[in-house]
Amino acid sequence: MHFRILGPLEALADDRPIGLGGTKQRATLGFLLLQANHVVATSQLLGALWAADDAPTTARKILHNAVSGIRGALSGGYGAHVARSAALLTRPPGYVMQVDPELVDLHLFEKWAGVGREKLTQGLLEEAARLLREALALWRGPVLADLVEAGVDWPELAAVQHARLDVLEDYFEAQLGCGRHHRVLTELEAMVKAEPLRERSCGQLMLALYRCGRQADALSVYRRMRDGLVENLGLEPGRGLKRLQQAILAQDPVLSLGGAASPYAPFDVVARGNLARQVIRSARSALVCAEGSRGEDGSRAALAEVGAGQEVRRSAEGAFGCVPAAEAAAGWRGEAPVPEGRGEGAARQPSELGYELLALRGLFGITRHRSVPHLVTVVGEPGAGKSRLLREFGGQATDLPGSPLFLSGRFPAVAHGDPLTAPAQILSAYCGLRPDDAAATAWARLAETVRSLFGSAQSAGWTLARLVPLVDPTSDSRCGGTPGEVMVAWREFFQAAARRRPVVLGFDDVHHADGSVLDAVEELAQCAGPVPLFIVAAADPELLLRRRSWAGGSSQATTLTLGRSTRDTTDRLVASLSSAVRGERPTAPHGVEHQLFDA
Questions:
Q1: Based on the number of CB atoms within 10 Å of its own CB, is 38 exposed (0-12), middle (13-18) or buried (19 or more)?
Q2: CATH of the domain at 34
Q3: Per-residue pLDDT at 545
Q4: Is pLDDT at 590 greater than 50 in this prediction?
Q5: What gap in Å lies between CA 404 and CA 402, rounded to an integer?
Q6: Number of structural domains the chain divides into
Q7: Could you give phi then psi for residue 335, rounded to 5 degrees?
Q8: Domain interval for residue 365
Q9: Nearest 5 degrees, angle CA 47-CA 53-CA 56?
Q10: Contact 378, 562 (CB under 8 A)
Q11: What is the value of pTM for the model shown?
Q12: Biggest CA-to-CA distance, the chain
């Protein structure tokens, strides 16, 4: 049983909403959930349901009937494990709503926000921004919005709403520290308009505007803030806001962006013509050949041979990607190059996939608005830009409505790895696991995540047992069942995850996936129920030869076909380097020098 009060009141049993009765019954449950696991006196409940002079003579009887109705709704035909997860008990001098805190979204919000604030205090801005964003994503509207519309006005509601504003300001602080002033500017403007007397968010908006080159607008925000304080409260802005105004007037360098957007250290630049020749000369003694399947992208095949430890992975971020290696001791291996401009502080290059990205954004918007899963299959020959489209769409995920969680994985060629590699990568990323985590750590984090999604360990036991082999390859694979059973559990896991927050799953090289995995990916869009789950599957045309009816006839499926990219110079560069090794005169392909210089 899950309870949602950060928005309209909802109770879910086995992921299905249950009827909660009329307004008084819903208000009784809502008030008890605000103080879950604490005894609420009968007199306090009566005061919450009626004003002192409006309570009817039968008020206690109405309250008693509401309590009986709630008990019936919580225990009626949903199974013993659901009934045990939440109970409304009589405890002098009133009642207590006894429930696992992990099943109440308000508790999860407070928990995640607390951890996010700890990371913010420690200076771990990226982690803080992620945790605070996830906490804020639990909100579906004003707290107990349906009861507020019915006339409920409790002081506790205002306290929860103010807590959300505090967390929102913490989130803005983390994002500004990461150099994302452009990303949060619109949200900051909306918040300051709604809460014009909050000095902290006002200062954050001033800083964001200043960093966007809008110094005059930043000073206008200060003037409006000061006028509002003087007219409404007879107060002047605090010292911190005054100092910020003076710093903006003086264009103080301290306001400039910190390390997140600092430029690269200076380095010697070689003339463009010489650069390509130097690369070719160096390659005569350093050309490496890697075996790959027919039609496989050359740069991807070569990078797959690169092993990397944790330090190398961090240092290479922005140049090429890394994925967990199949061998536990190997740490990481190289993946396709990261596109230019992926970093927050780097300049974005115009994408050749603009229309395809717009199509994906539009389809995701429908998925979120209607809470209907959707599968998009991106088909194209090797080199058409499928992987790049996935990466660019993933990079835009946090800017999409609802701030969905983007997770991706790549299927290796059948001869080169575990067919469940991509689902394992996605599950590990959701649970926050790293390749070097111990088996006990991986199991514990998985168990904690499953319990938070499904409720008690008993109700989630089947799912947990079958997911363990995905995060702990050393476990007995027989414990997880067949690959088909593992994928059924994996599918149910992400169905539950999408009920909490919109989820985007990206699969690359789906044509390498085996039958059970293809079944799970296809069924994920068809059987997930009313959840905002968006799946993007990139594949060579080989997939449609194997599965001629892939997603055919479904209103929840779309296919995008990509032509071969016009910027296909990598293979021609490899051919040029190979000719140099054979002693022939190499000729740099047109445009390669420019690309090398920009890289």
A1: exposed
A2: 1.10.10.10
A3: 85
A4: no
A5: 6
A6: 3
A7: -135, 180
A8: 353-561
A9: 80
A10: yes
A11: 0.47
A12: 102
